[in-house]
Records
---
Amino acid sequence: MIAHVVIWPILLPLVSAIVLMFFWNQSKVQRYITVAGHGISLLASFWLALRTYSGDIITLNSGSWPAPYGIVFVADALSGTLVLLASLAAFCVSLFSVVSIGTGRASFGFFPILQFLLMGLNGSFLAGDIFNLYVWFEVIIISSFVLITLGSERAQLEGAIKYVTMNLLASIIFLTGIAILYGLLGSLNLADLSVKIAQSDDKGLINTAAILLLVGFGIKSAIFPMYFWLPASYHTPPAAVSAIFGGLLTKVGVYALIRVFSLLFIDDPFIRSTFIVLAVSSMIIGAMGALVQQNIRKIFSFLIISHIGFMIAGLGMFSTLAVIGMVFYLFHDIIVKTNAFMISGLIFKLRGSFRLENLGGLYNRYPYLSIMFALAMFSLVGTPPLSGFWPKLFLLKASFNELNWWIIGGIIAASFLTLIAVIKIWLSVFWRKHPNYVEAKKRIVWYDLPKIQKFTILLPIAILTVVSLYIGLNAAKIVEICQLIAEQITQPSLYIDAVLSNPENQP
């Protein structure tokens, strides 16, 4: 029965979405149900994560079909933690959306689709075979496409077309890579593929599949040069949608890169060198793109691209220190980016605009909000002892050990450019006097909200700020978890044995 806990983070959002459909025209009831549903999913994810921190790799074979013949769900420390963070981010976004999402979008299925999106995210993290991973990716694409188009504003539809076109192209490339591996090796199970690839002599086709998977996952991760769709789309939907997108969607692509290439292809020197080139390019180009933007959500969108490069750099080096830094940065980035986009939504409610030239004066009027924003932004920069500092320290240590000056230079340059972008936001939004943007007065709704609704908007921002502070100030505990994950990732035999040798993994 212990193995069944693996499926709870997938089944609970599905059940919540089905229940929500029975209250399709009852917006107020939907808001209560969605928060309760995400809360229960968070508790189940927390229980699953705790189980994996003991070092167990828990597996569940669907229909009792033994691996590698049936669909298998696998929870190790990495996937367990990501399911927990995804559920936490979704819970906070659901709280934020209770007030920020209007009746119009709610009546067209916003809350059920948000549950389906969480189901797809958790399914991707727990998938034990590569085709099942593809299926969960499609669940994510369909759900996110609906969320990004709700409201049917011109900017949303334009961004949605770019988003779905590039992601469908990535899915086709991904599926082609799967087809090559299945045609060559006759398996889809990740653990079984790892064994068979090591025994195969047909390196040409295997390398072709590796490149196809790299391109497919690279598009979904928005790494250089496959990132153009992200800043063209993430700033168009409501802030609640941008928050879940910015915090989690690209991280699914990063997780897929980590899982597939740590198990199947990481020993290839060409692949590792390619990761390093892509990582440094993403760091610099993303940070430079953020500097020239005037829309606060576009700045955050380009910073997503830049900071994905830090994670990819760890995968390129693939030492224990590098993997610790990569995983730590992944955890930190999910929390901080989700929070940053929600804060941008709050700024819009306070000032009626996302453009820097129309903002200002928030520090004098709202000092506590300003402090929360400062904590989130300086965590992005990597200011000690906040959460962004520690993973950069591990990545720099790993780079010095390998004398990889390209990554060292990329981390330093990207951090400096991120600092400039953050200072630019701080000076424009919080420090200078408010420019009295007249047109915004029609869109400012904050002052008309009841106190309970204001509290509901501020609560998830405060929760993620506290979590980010906990990660930074209790870094030793987070590093212990990351060390366990690094051990499991750098020793693929642990994953393979758990899936193939002991399918049910009963303790």
---
Amino acid sequence: MPIPVVWSPETRRHEPLREVWVGVPTEGTELPQRVDRILAALSRHELVEASAHDDDVLRRVHAPELVDHLRTVHAEWLEGPYDELVGQDRVVPYVFPTPAMTQGMAPTRATATHGRAGQFGYDTMTLVGPGTWEAARAAVDCARSAVDLVGGGARTAYALCRPPGHHATREGYGGSCYLNNAAVAAEALRDAGHGSVAVVDLDAHHGNGTQAIFWDRADVRYGSLHVDPAAGWFPHYFGHAHETGAGEGSGATRNLPLPEGTGDGTWLDAVRELTAYAAGADALVVSLGVDAAADDPESPLQVTADGYAAAGRLLGSLGVPAVLVQEGGYHLDTIGGLVAAYVDGHEHA
């Protein structure tokens, strides 16, 4: 049976327009058109519109304060003078209460919206605009609905989540990610009775948010292959091989940083290693970023559609219930074919 594709028209509502990178506004690449390109490429599969779910799992994965902030901050921003004064109708942080500022002191909640913007947003690239909350929340419903389908007997379900989520931590958002769809899927699979869940992250960038959420847990293991952050790539501070978890989660995290220019051969060797690492888990979540492809503007890796198809066969061979969660992939002309290559490989494993 073809893998069902869960989606929501609401995920088109987020329109970042731009990013602010090293102080310069640049054109955004995480565009609503991504949804339609992927849908077109997966047209032979059954399309399932996501069902609404409550916030229970979401508020266990994320701090409730973060969820509430994302739900309300854009409306608060519009009530302020920012559009009139500087022509900015998106929420953009400019000051961050990092340990360098707080030095162990308990910060007081900022009064100004532009002050509070940096309490939860950890970079200047991830803007909040009209429709951002609705799209991010719909992406969570896509992930939850895919888990429901697996619970109902589907071997695998694909969640067309947009915006992506794997950079969102328990208490913060960044890297074009607002809510962590893969983490929600993993937590929901645990709730459904799966004793252990493996999250395998194929995105070109390390999923620091997913790693952070499950850092000290043994029941959800996290493995990622990605361009080496030591070569100057986002998220810079995390994704190194020495990061393996802490406490009960010690040894449950595995990172395989790859050099710039890595192509199918070395990349698939890393996929094989993570497939072996995931073996024995009762369920699987794949953070399916396809931005490791050669044409993608956001990374220097050189993976082909054949590489993604082979990765699908490798991870599909685990034979456990699986939820595929869309992460990155920003080249509109090829994103659909790359996603379809992986999904077809997983389906026919």
---
Amino acid sequence: MNIGFLNITIINPAVNITNKVNLWIKNGIIEHCDLSEPNWDNDTELIEASNWVCSPGLFDMHVHLREPGFSYKEDIKSGSSAAANGGFTGVLCMPNTKPVIDNPVVLEYIKQKSKNLLVDVYPSAALTNNLEGKHIAPMMDLYNSGALMFTDDGNCVQRSDVMRIIFDYAATKDLLVSQHCEDITLTHNFAMNEGALSDKLGLKGFPYIAEEIIIARDIMLSEYCGRRRYHVSHISTNGAVRLVRDAKKRGLRVTCEVTPHHFTLTDSLLESYDTNYKMSPPLRRQRDIDAILEGLSDGTIDCIATDHAPHALHEKDVEFESAPNGIIGLETALALSLDRLVHKGILSLQELIMKMSVNPRRILGLPDIKIQKGVNANISIFDPNEEWTVDKNNFLSKSLNTPFNGYVLKGKPKYVINNNQIHKSTL
């Protein structure tokens, strides 16, 4: 694999580098990375890239790959292909598989199935056995087997005494604890955000306070148990942003992520009863989006993650209340972030790359990616200004449950290179 990108802009905010270079990747290694003209090999494909950006490989720390147990929706290989197509070179997969990733055997299965892929697949593991919220999983065994984060994602640990034990146990190795924040006593059988619109549509609502109660409780518990590491998944409300901002100001080790759909779409779209707008947490109000945009801009929100949640057509093509929650996101996340954040002046390109590459890896304890001569290439290449129309038929995911089909976006993935493999986006 030999490929050269002429006059490409490298942006690596981890080391404060923004340079125009001729970039040559030879056998998976960066052979040349400066403005001089190298002696290209005859078999090197040269691409004019003066309008393109090269960043450290993007990383999505919240992905459902559905394997084992639900491979008709997605599997590790297809999910990895979708990730590469959307510009990612690394993902963290969630543990709500069947069987659950709550023991080293299942975790080892994930690792074996992920070998030799372009995209690096890292496993998270369950906080509690079978995601039931009652008895903690063998976290130390799972950590020793390679789990980078612990979460019952899809479920929320309701009991405060269990969360206290989890934080105390996490202290032994400073493990990263994450939570899907939802007080289910307030949300049972919800279909959308609670408010005047849910009343109008006759749909059960998920009140914003149900998310915020759990975030507040967990932040207090993490502090009480010795300032433990705590990561809030898919933050969605004004008050949630405020709680995380306050925790950071007090020096607590709290981080959080937001999805593109939660900074792009509002609950007003539910009037269509389109099940591709049904997710958990649900789409919120414009004032929540405004708070999220402010949180992205001021650094309160550390990461952009997709919560990529594939579902088969027959599962989503039902009455709204009966449809499962979740949408796919790997193949639209970068473009939506460029279009709605960078081109709207919310984030600079450097700040976006921090939130989509550098920060997720740092939160998970992974090393920063270097872009320099002599290192293995782990890079994402995109055109920040190319306009294109989303066509889900060009996706590589097994599932097509996206609300963004037909959207015209500014900013497009072009190539990813990692593990001596290259993928050219089909979008």
---
Amino acid sequence: MPIHLSAKKRLKQSQKAKLRNKAIKSNLKSLIKKVKRSTDPKEAESNFKAMQSLLDRATRFKIIHKNKASRQKEKLAKLINQKFKT
């Protein structure tokens, strides 16, 4: 355990950030699964837009790397296009 006051404060801050980051990553994983499992094109599109916005938010707060976000968006867009191609 930290002894100095500033170290104690930093520990609290990092624990709060860890919980916040974990929640965002968990939501992101859930949305990705929803996009992959969707059977209706409109449902897939709405889930994809929500996932994109959450990816952008996670990137903005440096929870995930911007290249990873870009790669996931492209991969899921390709999957949706193949799945619902008419």
